[in-house]
Structure formats: structure tokens, C-alpha cells
Predict the structure.
Amino acid sequence: MSAATTASGSVQDQRPGTSQAHFSGQSASPGIAYGRAHLHLGGLEEIETPAIQEDAVEAELARLDSVARAARVSLVRQREALAVHFTEDQRRVFDTHLQMLEDPVIEADVRERIASQHMSLEGAVKDALGVYERLFEVVESESLRSRLSDMRDVALRLLRFCRGTPKSQPKAALEGSVLVVKELSLADLTEALEGGVRAIAATGGYLGSHGAILTRAAGVPAVLGLGDVGEQVGPGDMLLVDGDAGQLIVNPSPEMVNAALGRETADVVELPPASLRDGSPVQLEAAVASPSEARTAAGMGVRRIGMYRTDLPVIQRQGFPKEASLVALYRQVFHVAEKAVFRLPDLDASCAIRSLYSHPEPNPALGVRGVRLLLERPELLNNQLRAIFKAAEGRPFSLLVPFVNDPSDLQPIREAIDNTREELRLEGLQVAHPVRLGAVLETPASALLGREILRDTDFVAVALDTLGQHLLAADRSLDHDQARGRLQRPHPVFLRAVRKLVQLAESLDKELAVYGEALGVAANLPLLVGLGVRQFWLRPQRLKALHQRFLDLDPQECEPIAEQVCRSSSEQEVWQQLPAAWREADEIG
């Protein structure tokens, strides 16, 4: 997400301010970006902490409950909204913050200050945090420093909710800007990613904080520790962020900007068509959740969008996005993509969208999710179909249905597609015909009924993560070695299921693609190649690394090993039979 790939036109067309200034900080995330400053400098220190009267204590305690509940909901929503940017392990930091919000010791500290010392909620949170800050300062420990950073992040989130539900900045105000903050919190990073921010500049911060770590993972150029830059930058200033050198220049000259962006552009290499060591082709396609990610993939030469996730606008809107805004969003995708597959919203009750779910579910992953929700709430399906048809302007596209268990899930979707097409045709619009329809295979039922589903679709996509999770009854979101460990290495049940689906697809002459974080497990890639998989949908951040990894794989070597391990009876047996080079290869980030 750099200006080199998103900015258009000459820098000389910009209208920067007249006062130029240079600041040095610490490189938190590499990359070069140029954009208008967007200031978001509210920190812990600026929040007022008035005392309260004794008769206001009960109301203040009730306010604590309400604010904590709102903060928890926001964390859950953001965790789901950022699924496309981060791996499951990276998103676990949101769970850490949730645990802090629910920590009974911390909550008791805050309650005691309100009840006994008549502090306001704001004062109680800041005072309790101060105790931990003083305690951790006397101990030299990176882990404690990281925990303190998380506590400050959680405290800031709580205090922002004390002012009422934080209003998200309009996307138009953030798009293409440089976000200037005090500390790089998860809330700030979420807003940056959702709003299309080009870079982040922080006056303070800590390189080991989870905010900084996730910023690097997301590929957003960032510099921390810039000191009093917030006092010298105004909303109209233009900023050049050099995440490689840890530098920030306020109102740089056109020559400076062009030199920096030219240096960044020189590092962007368009990938040639992917192939294996023997020259046989492999289809790499992008899995994205925003037009900016689609542009990033296109800039690398990958103009086929294997999967565009449509969940994010629904999560951001907390309900049904306006049709016009969806049309504008999806039209950007068609402008850069040679092929576009739109996965219909894959939501569950954990997203806490009240207009879709009237009450929580004990097990959202197995509840009213994916296609079940689309059929229960047809207005959500219709909202998406109308927008995609309109944005396509007659161009071909494909639709992917999530969480399909059997062919009966697909017929109502086909009917909705036909109805929408006819509805728009009567409105005088040009509409695509026909629409290719695919299904996500991610449950044991869909794997066992693979033949029937393949016959009733044009293509299928295997969601490796969720299929493995359901086959092995292991929750990949749990921080537990016994549960998650089963998903860290190839398991014969998982491999046999994929092999069966690949063979069925070949026999029926249907396309099959795979996607998921399992592609980052180094040993999985040669096994999938050995099983016959030749189409992979990848996050843009992984395209280059996997493109190179495929060149090292020989299908003649992979196929017999994959067939052999499919006959194993445990993951340990699989692991022992893999070549050392496969076991020792680096994870693909």
C-alpha cells in the first residue's frame, strides 16, 4: 500500500504547503508513501479525568459495564474485518486484548477506584494503567513491555468509547492520506486499512508493539517515534513517509517526491506466469477484500481476482451497504481485473451485526452463516447481486457461494441471480449472461458430496483452513497446542479429502482452486502440487514468495510422496515421511 502504486498523475499537480520540515524516527514498516496529512492525535494524556460525587458512583459503574461491552464488540468486529490482511496467528492479538478487557483483576482495580476514591471512569482507567506502567518500568523485559503496550492500547480504546461510540472517519477523508497518530494502536491501524490510508506516522510508539507488528504484516509504510511532529503538521500539509529510512518530510519538493517514488517503483517487479520446475503452468490468482489490494496484485502482474471478499462493506456498515456505494466499490475491481470472482458475504453471528442477528449464537462457526444467512436474509443477497451486476456493466463475472453443504444450497441462489438479472434488464441496464457459479467446499458434508456439488456448479474453491478445522474437530482460533497443533502439520485425513476433490474435478472437467493460511505452511505446498492442485488464490503479500517457491517444485518428485503420505494414519507419520527440505523450509508469510 504505497504511493508508488496508488498515486496517479504528476507530483507537481499537488498543492503542498510552503513550510518544509524533516523528522527522523524509527522504521516500523518499510515502503515509500506520499499523501495529505490526516491528524488523529487524541491520546491518553489528553483525556480529562474529573472526579465524581458519591451519589454518581452507581451510574459510573454502570457506565463502565456499557463502555467495556461496546469495546469488546468493536474488537470482535475488527478482528473479522481484518481477516484478509492477517493470518489467524496475527489476529490472535485481538483475542489478547479481549482477554484484557475481561480480566477480573484489572476490572476490580478500576471498579475499586470508582467506588472508593470517587474517580470518574476515565480517571480510574488512567490511574490503574499508571500503576502497571510504574511497575513494568523497573523490570527490563521485552515481554512485559509488549504487554504494557497492549494495556495502553486497550485503555485508549476504552477511553475513546467513554466519549460515546467512536465515529469512523469517512473513507473519502482517509483515502490516499498519511495518518498521523500518537501511538499506533489496533484501532488506528484498523481505520487505516479500512480507509485506504497510504502510510502512518506516529509521534511515539514502540517497535515491539502489536500495532507495529501488524502494520508491517499489512505492508503499510510506517515510522514511529517522530517526537513533536504533531505540533508542526497541519491538515493541509503533504507528507512523504520513508519507511525504509525512518524519515518523514513535511511539504517536500516535487523533486524529492519524484525521486523517492521512483526508487519505490523500481522495486516493484511484475511477475511472469507461474510454473513448476518442469515448466508446467500454475495459475496464481489474487484473494483480496478491497480495490486497493486488487490494484496491488495487478501491479505485480496478477490481474485475475480468484476471490473478492464482499464481507467487509457489510461489517463496516453494520448492515446493508448503500447500493450506490457498493457499485462504485466493485466498479474499481472490474477496471483492473481480467477475471473477477465475487465471494458472497460469509458472515456469522460473531460479527455482532444486530440487523442480521437478533441474538448471539453459542457456536457461530456452525450456525446461521454463509449461504444459510443469505437464504434467511434475502435482502442481503439481493443488495450484493444488484451492485455486482451494475458494476459489471455487462462484463462477465463469477459468483462464489460460501459454506455450501449440498446442492440444495445452490438452487435458491441461482433463482436469485436470475431474478436480479431480469429485474435489472427491465430497468434498462445491460447485464452479464450467463454468470458462472461456484461453491466453497469447507465442511465434511461438502467434501463427501463433492461429486454432486461439482456437477451443479461451474467451479469449486476449497477453503483449506476451515475444511481442515472441521475434518479434525480442531478450532484454529484457540490458543491451545493440542487443538491448533493438529492444523500446523499436514494430516492424512485432510490430504485424502483434497485428493478426492481434485480427482472428482478432473473427471468432471471442472475448475478447482484452493485458498487459505494453510498455503503458508511450507510442507503443504509440495503436497498440494503432488495431489494435482494447479490453481491457488493468494493474498497479494504472498504472491511473490509463492511464485518463487513453485519454481523449486518438481511434480515428478511431489506426486509419489503425496500419494504415499495419503496412506499414513497420523500427522506424525506424514511428517516423518516428508523430505527434510520440505520440513525445514521457511514458513511463507
Summary: The domain at 3-43+170-255 is CATH 3.50.30.10 (Glucose Oxidase; domain 1).
